Amino acid sequence: MYGRLEQAFRARDGRALAAVCADTYQVVFPNGGKMDRDRTAAAYYRQMSAMQEVHKVRMQPEQFVEQGKEVIAVVTNSFTARTLDAQHLPHEINSVVHTRDTWAKQDGAWRLIRSDVRQQSLVQDGKTVLFQTAEPAKPH
Description:
By secondary structure, the chain is α+β, with helices and mostly antiparallel strands.
């Protein structure tokens, strides 16, 4: 599953990324925000079209748990890439997203039905521009 997603990301193929999502797909962010399949697909297309080059992508499942007819995957997704902003200026970005993905078989194919983002960070040109976590802060 994730190997094909890595290939699609590397090829900047937003259509292939969206194709694994069920019609009812939903992503839930640490701040409580949600996106449905259509908004997620639109975000994939925007992100892929802004990328000039994908340097590295890794979608690493760390755990699979069967729960009835569903499979839960705990995954770390990361990539580094060169993108262009709205003014067509290049930027180097590094993204790391930890998710809890729920998969189910629909019409004989595995479909992603939900992604719970547990933590995400985005570094652009060496500066953190986004950091969200659903986990409580740990004391140092």
